[in-house]
Amino acid sequence: MQLMENAWQRFIEHTTLRRGVVLAALMLFLWSIRAVMTEVLLTFIFTYLIVHWLRLIQRKVPWLPTIVTALVTYAVLIILVYLGVTKYLPMLINQVVKMVDYLIKYSQSTDMQWLTKNLSHYISMKEITAQVRNWLTVGINTITTVGNFTVSFVMAIILSFFYAIELEQMNHFSRQFLQSKVAGWLFKDLNFFGQKFVNTFGVVLEAQFFIALTNTVITAVCLIVMQMPQVLALSVMVFGLSLVPVAGVIISLVPLCMVGYNTGGMRYIIYLLIMIAVIHAIEAYVLNPKFMASRTELPIFYTFVVLLVGEHFFGVWGLLVGVPIFTFFLDILGIKPVKPVQEVAK
């Protein structure tokens, strides 16, 4: 008995080993609840953004109660969501339908006959039919996923709302776990990993969000100048894909070029290629040094590997949070430490 107590005490005092075990247990726990990972990640993202917004308002207007700021913020958010769903979503769906129609007409045009003729020598009609069936299955699954995502989105908004209106009480109550005489060490380790993850996730995700927003604005302006059709749908697509580091902009180039060719021929494709090259230059030499102030950017090879592995294990979420999670592990292992968000802001 004494030997077990001594071993347990040595384990508690060995910080590196103890934190390694806690991290492994935490990863196992998250893997076991992967079915609700969408709700977890959405709740974390909304809570992170709202808490930062509340802290900003507190610094600017210290006399304003936090609960009032939270209530006003969520009221405005609900109004914006309502306007987006009732006014802009039908417009977006209409433009997406038109964009798909553009792509279908382009694929059936004389310009694509040579490609269809050459492909027919290598791909049988049976294989094409099988691929069409797979695409239909993917489409049905996507519709189901959109419904589930809507439910998860609403739940995440509600949970983040309850967290925000009781922000100070939540912080006070959570600190009591650190004083536990039985498992205080466990909660301190969880707090350590939590702070590391919030700092890493915050720095990387905020930077990628602002980069995606800037890329989308520049792209939208260029598309309007070029008089491209369905600018709203293309802009939303560019923004969503730009949240995926490196690969997103390259993937968005394919539908952009197809719509551009159907609108203005090869001349528009050249314009789009120049536009993407300029955006990449701005991102590399202006946006990354400004937003990635903590120097967490990765080599392109590592980025693609992380995206592939993240997509394999976590699906679409892996493309969005794969890089922040990988950066978190680099920080934990001391390979590439990440500065706290406060230091980056300074």
From TrEMBL:
| Cell compartment(s), UniProt | Membrane
Protein's GO biological process: transmembrane transport
Could you tell me the superkingdom of the organism this chain comes from? Answer: Bacteria
The primary site where this protein sits is membrane
Which residues belong to the signal peptide in this entry?
none
A GO CC annotation recorded here is: membrane
Record key words, sorted = Membrane, Transmembrane, Transmembrane helix
Topology of the protein relative to the lipid bilayer: Multi-pass membrane protein
Respond yes or no to whether keyword Membrane is given for this record: yes
TM segments? 21-51, 63-85, 135-165, 207-225, 232-256, 268-288, 300-330
Q: Which family does it belong to?
A: Belongs to the autoinducer-2 exporter (AI-2E) (TC 2.A.86) family.
Q: What is this protein called?
A: Permease
